[in-house]
Amino acid sequence: MEDTNDFGTRLERLCQEKGITPSELARRTSLSRKSIFEWVGKSGRIPRDPLHLKKLCEFFKVSPAWLLWGEEEKSALSTR
Length: 80
Fold this sequence. Notes:
Structural class: mainly alpha
Radius of gyration: 11 Å
Helix content: 55-70%
CATH topology: 434 Repressor (Amino-terminal Domain)
Low-confidence stretches: none
Number of helices: 5
Order of helices and strands: HHHHH
Number of strands: 0
Largest sheet: none
CATH class: Mainly Alpha
Distance between the termini: 28 Å
């Protein structure tokens, strides 16, 4: 398994697991492609707007703590 020690890498891995591209993620979350591409990957930055982070977490059904810091089970929000 690849290293998932940072936000951008975790986000990239979630896209891979769901079988979607960053462009598809942007379309499905109504977030800008430019922003998604700034967030995805090893050098990805953390979204400045908490609502953007919330959209990502809701879409992937993961907790903000896991996406930001890898601190708990990534499927913490899988049951809604």
